[in-house]
Write a structure and sequence with these properties.
This protein is of the alpha/beta class and 308 residues long. Helices cover 43% and strands 19% of the residues. The protein has helices spanning 14-25, 46-54, 72-86, 105-116, 166-171, 187-197, 221-241, 246-269, 274-294; strands at 3-10, 32-39, 62-66, 91-94, 99-101, 120-129, 151-153, 162-165, 202-214.
Length: 308
């Protein structure tokens, strides 16, 4: 029987972590499951305390520990090392502590992995809002549903609901996630970029559904634009890490210039359609984040925690 390690990094979200752990108990799966939780808060340890409190009566083996080095990349590295050293899991299913899966989540991943032979898969992410956002921002990144067509895909760029073979972690030079992206994000895009370079294959599984809690503090245009800036900043930093050719850099410059040029035009032309106008602004802020990275500036999105 296949063994799966569900790997969860957590930082000061005990309520979200408990909601996630309770949903994992309700999974309808034929797999053997072990749950790994890396608490990235060495001082407060709320996640660790929660896991220790519920471990005795929990449905699955629950292995919780402190990942003392601050940052999402070090926390993910600690989970990968724990999975390789202490389990025989053939796959790691990775979730964030503000998400929770539907009952058929794991078996959907297993079915599509068997059908496609993919080394890593991404699933659907459905937002659940504390306060419904305005229509002008509901389709921006971080608030829109992430859905796709089940089957092989070219690339994965996020670890918010992924299913990765053990061989992917074993085959990478360590650490698997670059700590340079610890607080700014981008460690996931970099991880899959490295896997792509090794010839690994990817797939999308739209039936592997998780819900993602969006607190009121994030359901705003201001947050959406900050997220766009952060995404552009981290994407460009990953791009630059691999020393792109002059031609590749030129193409990026053209994209950035086009985004800046389009913002005023789109803002005027789409004044009567707020969602499209917000999308135009989103592209402009994303381009600004790229320019900041080109100038050596780093935006640390994950220095602030949203939700509990």
């Amino acid at each position: 029987m296949v063994e799966i390690a569900i790997a969860i990094p957590t930082f000061r979200r005990p309520l979200g972590l408990e909601r996630l752990l309770r949903a994992i108990e309700k999974l309808e799966t034929t797999a053997n499951v072990i749950v790994l939780v890396a608490d990235n808060d060495a001082e407060g340890q709320e996640g660790l305390d929660l896991c220790r409190r519920i471990a005795a009566g929990y449905r699955w083996p629950l292995d919780s520990f402190i990942a003392p080095e601050r940052g999402i990349a070090p926390a993910r590295n600690a989970l990968a090392e724990r999975m390789l050293a202490r389990t025989k899991a053939q796959f790691a299913a990775m979730l964030d502590d503000d998400e929770w899966p539907e009952p058929q989540w794991l078996d959907a991943f297993l079915r599509v992995q068997a059908e496609t032979g993919a080394d890593a898969l991404h699933g659907a992410v459905i937002p659940v809002f504390e306060a419904e956002p305005r229509a002008s921002v509901a389709q921006c990144d971080g608030m829109a549903s992430r859905r796709g067509i089940t089957g092989r895909c070219a690339m994965i760029d996020s670890t918010a609901n992924v299913f990765v073979s053990r061989a992917c972690f074993e085959g990478l030079a360590k650490p698997c996630f670059d700590a340079a992206f610890g607080l700014g994000g981008g460690e996931d895009r970099d991880f899959f970029t490295r896997l792509e370079a090794q010839g690994k294959h990817f797939a999308y599984c739209d039936e592997a559904v998780v819900n993602a809690y969006v607190p009121a503090s994030r359901a705003t245009l201001a947050w959406a634009l900050k997220r766009a800036y952060s995404t552009g900043n981290s994407d460009m930093r990953v791009f630059l890490k691999y020393r792109p050719s002059g031609a590749a850099l030129a193409r990026e410059f053209v994209k950035i210039a086009g985004a800046f040029a389009a913002v005023p035009v789109m803002s005027l032309a789409l004044a009567a359609t707020p969602p499209r106008r917000a999308r135009g602004l989103w592209k402009g802020f994303r381009a600004a984040g790229k320019v900041a990275a080109l100038l050596g500036r780093r935006y640390n999105e994950y220095a602030v925690t949203h939700g509990a």
